[in-house]
Amino acid sequence: MLPESGVGGAGIADVPPDDADAVPMTAPEPFRRAVSSLLATELRPEATMERIRPPQRLAPWSFAVAVDVSAGGNDLATGRLVVLYDPDGAEAWDGELRLVAYAQADLAADMAGDPLLPAVGWSWLTESLTQRAAEHTAVGGTVTQTTSTRFGDVHGPASTTQLELRGSWTAIEPDLSRHVLAFVDLLSVAAGLPPEGVAVLGGR
């Protein structure tokens, strides 16, 4: 498994050069197919995706996007998805095409202090991959739960609970559409949104 450091940090969010092509024509065909399928994936209306600068030195070829989920004008969850490709393969990956994900969301107050929250958060990723039939192997990562309490003259709720997930897995096939949809599903669940196409009454 790749180290997750750097994913989701300030450097990765730098706006990349305005290139006409997503990847160079000299890039390996499997990598080009992977990026093309990622960018062609149609997301649910609450999700937006934009290209960002990928982290360097993790693989010979890399590509990254930012994915945000919002509703009612409010940002509910944000994430980064990085595609890494090594034509020689990597023993830790068990393959050539690795996806590295970072997700962050503010959670409902009643979830604060739940000792099972990290395990539940991790299941959102693994179950999303399974439900989308995104064939993968060598999945691993971490889930961090933090609670912040405001004091003094600071606007906002008295306390907030935030979940951060860092994970990576190896895609079996270069078509990444199901993997992208699974990642959006993860963000949507963390944001408290219902499954795509399902309407609910009341607030989050």
Number of helices: 3
How much of the sequence lies in strands comes to: 35-45%
Radius of gyration from the alpha-carbon trace, in angstroms: 17 Å
User: Can you tell me the number of structural domains?
Assistant: 1
End-to-end separation? 35 Å
From the spread of the alpha carbons, the general shape counts as globular
Helix vs. strand class:
alpha+beta
Q: How many strand units?
A: 6
What labels would you give this structure?
204 residues, 6 strands, disordered C terminus, alpha+beta, 36% strand, six-stranded antiparallel sheet, 3 helices
Structure explained in plain terms:
The chain contains 3 helices and 6 strands. It has 204 residues and is α+β, with helices and mostly antiparallel strands. The chain has one domain (10-191). It has a 6-stranded antiparallel sheet, with helices on one face. The radius of gyration is 17 Å and the shape is globular. Residues 1-20 and 200-204 have low confidence and may be disordered.
In short:
The chain has helices at 29-40, 117-131, 177-191, and strands at 47-52, 61-71, 74-90, 95-107, 136-149, 159-171. With 204 residues, it is an alpha+beta fold. The chain is globular and about 55 Å long.
Topology of this structure?
Layout: H1 29-40, E1 47-52, E2 61-71, E3 74-90, E4 95-107, H2 117-131, E5 136-149, E6 159-171, H3 177-191
Antiparallel strand pairs: 1-2, 2-3, 3-4, 4-6, 5-6
